[in-house]
Specification:
Layout lengths: L1 H12 L11 H4 L12 H4 L6 H4 L4 E7 L10 E8 L1 E12 L2 E16 L2 E10 L11 E11 L2 E10 L2 E10 L7 E9 L9 E8 L5 E8 L3 E10 L2 E10 L2 E11 L8 H5 L4 E6 L2 E4 L10 E3 H13 L3 E7 L3 E2 L2 H16 L3 E6 L4 H7 L4 E4 L5 E2 L11 H7 L1 E6 L9 H4 L5 H23 L6 H10 L2 E2 L1 H7 L4 E2 L5 H9 L4 E3 L1 H7 L12 E8 L10 H13 L3 E10 L1 E2 L1 H12 L1 H4 L3 E10 L1 H4 L6 E4 L4 E3 L5 E6 L2 H5 L18 E2 L6 E2 L6 H26 L3 H7 L4 E3 H6 L5 E2 L2 H11 L9 E5 L12 H6 L19 H11 L6 E2 L13
Parallel strand pairs: 15-18, 15-26, 16-17, 16-19, 18-20, 20-21, 21-25, 27-28, 27-38, 28-30, 30-31, 30-32, 31-37
Antiparallel strand pairs: 1-2, 1-14, 2-3, 3-4, 4-5, 5-6, 6-7, 7-8, 8-9, 9-10, 10-11, 11-12, 12-13, 13-14, 22-24, 23-33, 29-39, 32-36, 34-35
Helix pairs in contact: 6-7, 7-8, 8-11, 16-17, 21-22
Length: 824
């Protein structure tokens, strides 16, 4: 800690001339209830400028004294305001020959924060008549260090021409919260020896938020009592100072946005009187761009807004406009879970829909009231999953394709090798469709609007329903336009409710974080898209980031959002190795699976301390597959031929027909029997490693893993039964459980550090040919999407095979992504 305090303590160790050009600490501290390094905010910044860096929001404080000069002029008044950059003014009447004279002291300060606390620098100067009192301009350097929740150490050094002044203070919270504070300070004045400073100390109590009392004494027969009250974001404080048992003066202070929590009268006076308005128009993504991105809705922002509605006592519910809402079914489930939690908290919700599909109505059905546009329509035909088979297309093009499949359910390349669905693939797809249908049906019918039999009958007989028919069935409550959403909310919550946006309410209801010590960091890592080295999950950089998070002391836990269909085993394992290293490091690492976390997506999940999935997550697919594509007449159709020289029996597999413009190289022949043996050996070896890692990571017998593997995909609830995942939960609950596992107390504010970092703005779209020549792939410039990018799955498979010929692949079966097996 010395290296943080040393610059400020220089003044304590140096001598000083007899003449005082700096105000004594005892006089300057008359506005403080404690010491400069604790809770006095912008007022304390006049003595320790590091307070400007501590403040979370700009504070303004105004003060005056009840003492007056014989001419009825107030002796002491002033103000301080700012955050990071601050300004203060203090006017005092000081005695001169023949009476009293006013002088104004000014300060301009700059503060900055860091993980251990804050530092600050200020420049002070005085107004008219400073020479009469020996006033001189000065520079002040301050530091506040809060290494633990119970300790704060502050130091300040002031320097002016020929004089130096130093202050050191200490604050201790025995209960590790603001209820009780013990403090002490030591000030060295310019005309004193270093061991003859002004020692002071005291105690402050805050039995409940908003009430404070403090007593402060010094060894020079001074004693001060402080009483204060803070309502919401406005505080009032009276500080009475006594000298030799006689009251010398009382200062009164009014504070706006003080860095202490106040009483919450709104919580009682306006209980459940507000409704949050949420317009969810746009595509839900994991990360939006920082600037100029109005079309994206970050998932965490939606979840945080609904959490605000649940936890804030002034909020009685939410009014949500779902027109234009675009999210995959897994994310819809996460948002729906929040709506259900809102209802469990005794609060209301009303949702507007216009042209919903099944997933939109699934979300809306969790609301207390559903209203629909007069010209809307509900489409709810049921659930299906469709595959398009390209074997005939490849034959027409003159391309041969051979699937290397050794596991029953590993059907990722069927679309290239077959003309129809295999029985094994049909079996697992039927399970997925059934699970999705049942999950949606159970959710919708749990609203009490219809029975399961009525739901099934409607889906089968009336897949498209107009608003009037929905009203007759009781599926909606009213037929109105979006401009009537407020009125619909008043019908269920009362006419006296007011409306607010989440952002405006957060600003109004803000309370400071009073906890000392470095704020713990939770790293949120997005592993999104195909498993590749430099695209998708970006195996190289993501693995390095995980290593850094593991080594950083301020990062207490890591949550990985896995939303990947798999791909390159090397990229998958680079990430998995770093995740595996968290176990001996005893740092919690949890995985939240998104829409798809299969094959390579499951590989990067399996070593987490805990895995969460949703009912709509596609996971598992523990298996390996490969394939080979070759020129089987394409060159002849295009009038292209190849020739080569080689050394090595299989060297000609590495070359082949190079297609101009698009840059694809296609081998000239298929593998022979000898080469197939080598390929099979590699696939089986990789499968053995995969299942062994799953067994070790999940704590399952290897034989059991092999029973449920074979490339089989599972929906979230079935995966939970098989112990492939540990719970059914969304991203926000996963973060909360990771915090608890890291020992972070409930309610403690944390810093969420996202990786990759949020991008500044969207790159302008380029024509396809230009983008190809520049090496850009559609989606590379797009911030991490909510679901795997909307690639053509068959194109991805072909690209993987052609870019790494003969390499076994960890791929989830086609058409489980990105298309959903649920009607929109």
């Amino acid at each position: 800690m010395k290296r943080f305090l040393a610059p400020c303590l220089v003044a304590l160790l140096l001598g000083a001339p007899a003449r005082a050009a700096l105000s004594p600490y005892g006089e300057e501290s008359s506005l403080l209830s404690t010491v400069p390094g604790t809770d006095d905010g912008s007022i304390a910044a006049t003595l320790n400028p590091a307070q400007w860096g501590i403040l979370e929001r700009s504070e303004a404080a105004f003060w005056w004294s009840d003492r007056q000069t014989p001419g009825h002029r107030r002796e002491d008044y002033g103000f301080s305001m700012g955050r990071a950059l601050g300004f203060s003014y203090r006017h005092r009447m000081l005695p001169v020959s023949g009476g009293a004279r006013g002088v104004g002291d000014y300060q301009i300060g700059l503060g900055w924060s860091d993980p251990l606390g804050a530092g600050g620098l200020s420049y002070g100067f005085s107004g008219p008549g400073r020479s009469a009192f020996g006033r001189r301009n000065f520079v002040s350097l301050g530091r506040i260090v809060r290494p633990f929740p119970w300790l704060s150490v502050g130091s300040t050094g002031r320097v002016t021409s020929g004089e130096r002044q130093g202050m050191l203070d200490l604050g201790v919270r025995p209960l590790q919260d603001p209820r009780l504070l013990l403090f002490g300070g030591y000030a060295l004045e310019p005309d004193r020896h270093w061991d003859d400073g002004d020692l002071s100390g005291g105690v402050a109590v805050r039995p409940i938020p908003g009430l404070e009392a403090a007593g402060r004494w010094s060894e020079h027969d001074r004693f001060q009592i402080t009483l204060g009250v803070t309502l919401a974001r406005t505080g009032f404080r009276a500080l009475s100072r006594y000298q030799n048992s006689d009251r010398a003066a009382t200062h009164y202070v009014v504070r706006m946005n003080p860095p202490v929590r106040g009483m919450d009268p709104e919580g009682r006076l306006f209980q459940k009187r507000r409704f949050l308005e949420m317009d969810l128009k746009g595509e839900v993504v994991y990360q939006s761009y920082r600037y100029f991105d109005e079309s994206s809705l970050p998932l965490r922002r939606i979840l945080d807004d609904l959490t605000l509605a649940i936890e804030d006592p002034t909020v009685g519910g939410v009014a949500i406009n779902l027109s234009g809402f675009d999210a995959n079914i897994e994310i819809v489930w996460e948002v729906r879970e929040k709506l259900q939690a809102l209802r469990q908290a005794g609060k209301k919700s009303v949702v507007y829909i216009d042209r919903p599909g099944a997933k939109d109505y699934y979300l809306a059905s969790a609301a207390d009231r559903v209203v629909m546009d007069p010209f809307g329509m509900l489409t709810i035909p049921g659930v299906s999953t469709t595959k398009t088979y390209l074997r005939g297309t490849l034959e027409k093009l003159g391309l041969g394709f051979e699937e290397w499949r050794y596991f029953k359910y590993k059907s990722a390349l069927e679309t290239l090798s077959r003309r129809d669905m295999s029985e094994a693939d049909r079996e697992q797809r039927a399970d997925m469709v059934r699970a999705a249908y049942d999950e949606m049906a159970d959710g919708i019918t749990s609203s009490g609007r219809m029975s399961r039999a009525q739901f099934d009958l409607t889906v089968n007989e009336e897949p498209g329903l107009m608003p009037q028919r929905l009203l007759e069935l009781g599926w909606i409550d009213e037929i109105v336009g979006p401009d009537s959403l407020r009125e619909a909310a008043r019908e269920i919550a009362g006419k006296r409710i007011t409306f607010s946006t989440p952002r405006a309410l957060r600003d109004r209801r803000w309370q400071p974080d009073e906890t000392w010590g470095p704020r713990p960091t939770i790293a949120l890592v997005y592993a999104i898209g195909e498993c590749a080295m430099d695209t998708g999950i970006r195996g190289r950089t993501t693995s390095k980031a995980l290593k850094k998070f593991r080594e950083r002391r301020d990062v207490k836990a890591v949550v990985v959002r896995a939303d990947s269909p798999g791909g390159d085993p090397l990229a998958s394992d680079l990430v998995a190795r770093e995740m595996r290293a968290y176990r001996p490091a005893q740092k919690p690492l949890f995985v939240s699976q998104g829409r798809v976390a299969g094959s390579g997506g499951y590989w990067i999940s399996m070593d987490a301390a805990r895995i969460h999935a949703s009912p709509f997550t596609v996971t598992g697919s523990i298996g390996v597959i490969g394939g080979w594509i070759w020129n089987d007449g394409l060159g002849k159709k295009l009038g292209m031929t190849t020739d080569h020289v080689q050394m090595g029996k299989s060297a000609d597999l590495l070359g082949g027909l190079l297609i101009p413009l698009i840059g694809l190289q296609i081998p000239e022949r298929n593998l022979d029997d000898r080469e197939r043996v080598v390929v099979k050996r590699g696939i089986l070896t990789l499968y053995d490693e995969f299942t062994a890692h799953v067994a070790a990571g999940r704590g399952l017998p290897l034989e059991r893993v092999r029973e449920i593997a074979q490339g089989h995909v599972y929906a979230g609830r079935r995966a939970l039964e098989l112990k492939l995942v540990d719970g059914i939960a969304g991203l926000d609950r996963t973060i909360e459980e990771a915090k608890a596992a890291a020992g972070i107390p409930k309610g403690r504010r944390v810093r969420i550090e996202e990786y990759p970092r949020q991008k500044l703005f969207r790159m302008p779209s380029l024509p396809g040919s230009v983008a190809t020549r520049l090496g850009l792939r559609w989606g590379d410039a797009v911030a991490a999407p909510a679901a795997p990018e909307r690639w053509t799955y068959e194109e991805q498979g072909l690209r993987s095979i052609l870019s790494s010929p003969g390499t076994p692949l960890l791929l989830t079966p086609a058409s489980f992504l990105p298309d959903e097996p649920v009607a929109r």
